[in-house]
Design goal:
83% helix, mainly alpha, 196 residues, 10 helices
Length: 196
């Protein structure tokens, strides 16, 4: 990828791919720097063309950037980038003629942005602000058990008796549908131990 970057320095898809590779190998600081460069370039492209394809690239770059900002602990910036991405994706989704991203791509990108924003709020201690992102993610995925686990952890961490009961109820409802899901079983066990 570095060779390709040297040979074709203005090729944005390859730069974006290289940034995602950096994320995958855990080099989040370098990924943030690379994604900021990608974002600046695609934003300039969008300002010139105002095409939906360019807008889709901006939204994807923002989503990826927010995820990496979360990884390096820049929670406030991660939330800002994720919310901007969600706004852009909603704009794309509302345009029936757009073909830049499929419905499935929009759904997955929005899910990534919502989870990033929710986790950033959670890790910064803003439990109340995190919950709506996880609830929306649950609705969008049809009650994915992994997202139920995250929501239950957030509710439990919030600490009120009502929140803890909602977390328990969510987990027990989910275990009926997803028998044997390790994350659900582990959380139920951990909560039982903490209650004693």
């Amino acid at each position: 990828l570095q060779q390709l970057n040297l040979q074709v320095p203005y090729d944005i898809p390859h730069k974006h791919l290289a940034a995602l590779f950096l994320e995958r190998v855990g080099n989040y600081d370098a990924a943030v720097a690379a994604l900021q460069a990608v974002y600046e370039t695609v934003e300039q492209e969008y300002e010139k063309s105002e095409s939906l394809k360019s807008l889709a690239r901006v939204a994807q770059a923002k989503t990826d950037l927010s995820r990496n900002l979360l990884a390096v602990g820049s929670y406030e910036s991660a939330v800002e980038e994720a919310e901007t991405a969600l706004d852009l994706l909603s704009e794309l989704e509302s345009d029936a003629k757009q073909s830049a991203l499929s419905k499935d791509q929009i759904m997955k990108t929005k899910l990534s942005a919502r989870l990033t924003a929710g986790l950033a709020h959670y890790f910064s201690g803003s439990f109340e602000a995190a919950i709506p992102y996880f609830r929306t993610s649950l609705e969008a995925t049809g009650a994915n058990p992994d997202i139920i686990c995250i929501l239950a952890e957030v509710l439990w961490a919030k600490g009120g008796e009502n929140e803890k009961q909602v977390a328990r109820d969510q987990l027990f409802t989910a275990i009926e549908k997803h028998e044997g899901h390790v994350g659900l079983l582990t959380l139920i066990g951990a909560m039982t131990v903490l209650d004693d």
